[in-house]
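SAMPLE LOG
Freezer: B-3
Tube label: C17
Construct: single chain, 264 aa
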Amino acid sequence: MKRKKKDSVGSLDSLLDTITTVVGILIILLIVVQLGADSAVKRIVEEKKEEDSKELMEFAMKQFDEQKHTLQKEKEELQLRQASQNKEQQKLIQEIAQLEKELTAKKKEIPPSPPKLQNLRQEKSKLQKEQNSVEVKVKKIKGLLVKAPKPSGQTISKEVSLPDPKPAIAGSTPYRFLCRNGKIFPLNDKALQGMVLTNLAKAAVKPNKDKEYDGKKFLSVINGKKPSTSFFTLVAREDKDKVIRFSMERKDKAGENENQVINP
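STRUCTURE (predicted):
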């Protein structure tokens, strides 16, 4: 009987050893499996992160492109709107200028305001006084005419018969005179014209293809040389319409009286 007890105890020890070994192996397997699972989870998480980062980057780039396209479209719309506003502003400026011109023309067409009533009364009173004064003078003159002796039937006028003028000889040149203040001034405009052309030629002032001269150079030459005859000095002036006009100014102490003409 004692031997049987020893055998049963030995068999239990081996069973415990086996169970312990199996449990240890299972624990090791669990640890290994746990470690593998952790690494797998980490790998999956990393891969997921990379995929998510790519998706996020693609999504961000897509949003950026959409925003860029939207901003570009808004920019083009703003440019078109600004160009349209500039055209409208230019049109408004032109319309305002046209309205100002029309307003100025309308102002010129408006008749002047009538004088005040007080001014009209003063003018009427002044005219009335002048009328009364004229009427008094007329009455005085009429009275003097009544008292004056009547004229005789004889007249002091004298009739003179002048010979009929003869026609000018063919090829003759008319000669003109200017009579002022009891003196006679011969007008020799052809000579003055020749002097003008001579002075222009000497100064090398030539007309253009339209036969027009430079106004400043022309006036400088003519008024500098002062072409003249014994009786007149030629003066050139430029009018507001850019036309050069000549005037013949009489010289002091020039001209001939009746005796000088008869007895040269």
